[in-house]
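Bench log. Compound arrived from synthesis this morning; before running ITC I wanted a structural hypothesis for how 3-isopropylmalic acid sits in the protein. Inputs:
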Amino acid sequence: MEMNIALLPGDGIGPEVIQQAVKVVKAVGEKFGHKIHFEEAAVGATAIDQVGNPYPDATHEVCLRNDAVLFGAIGDPKYDNDPKAKIRPEQGLLEMRKKLGLFANVRPTFTFPSLLHKSPLKRDRIEGTDFVFLRELTGGIYFGEPRGRNEQGTKAFDTNVYSKEEISRLAIMGFEFAMKRRKLLTCVDKANVLATSRLWRETVQELAPNYPDVKVEYEFVDAVAMRLIQWPKAYDVLITENLFGDILTDEASVISGSMGLMPSASLGTDNKLFEPIHGSYPQATGKNIANPLATVLSAAMMFEYAFGLDAEAKVISDVVNLSLEKGVVTEDIADGGKAYGTSEVGDWLAENV
Ligand code: IPM
Ligand code: MN
């Protein structure tokens, strides 16, 4: 197969982890006889430095003309403590999601047998955990208008707004995921307080009869925050709005032992983007210590979701598991044993594909 991939390394550790994913993707391409082309473009603080725009038109063009986007991370501390900054790297990420129509962010949580002891949770709670969040990604309070300040600058406001159409396209994807999995769908909302959440619930209730095999549960977001830690095995597919999904998926990611492990896919009707769920991790930038596995596993999701190449995806997840078993890992999960560098882990994975 001919595969065209846009590479957006971004900021912080983004470039380092993307480099490792590229090694692995190339190795898989050789093994299976695929022709893989990469086209790189700037995004985030890097793009602000280069052209003054965190998501330049040229980058958007690159995303549009390739089959899939592999993305590293966005964010730079120089903007974090400057609430007055006019242009922020994160705006680039939001604009990219919006312009590419990436309305569903698929964030799985699963455990790795050899890392169960790394989890902050007890083994019997997490062994066998396997759920996936579908976070709505282009609506809600992240994008709602009006937003900003009053004239005096003494009040600030954001607007949470959802249309039925935005909710139902995400919910339908949730039902379809559930059909392929354990057939349990949890709608996470705050319907006891928020009008938007009541529309979520109503929309999901209307769709449910189309999927008689799927059991649907409705849970408040605060309760889910608690239950995810108490009994993560209770969940299969969870659907939720943008902000709740942002928060809960960070919480979920540490169940497996390190945030450096969890991949994600952002899917739209026409475009697909794959990215690790960790951020730009500025403290580790350039030190060759960042864990590349989340990005490598995001590349596995790319083979599966963008190209329908499940066997290729499996080869990647297998080699990742092998590296964990053999202890070819970065310091965040080395557990006092030998810690390998980011690029050494990448090399090892590519060689063992
Ligand atoms: C994420 C990130 C982003 C978000 C930030 C960087 C804007 O936290 O992808 O989860 O809030 O969506
Ligand atoms: Mn987040």
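What the model suggests: The chain has 13 helices and twelve strands. Residues 14-32 form the longest helix (19 residues).
ITC booked for Thursday regardless.
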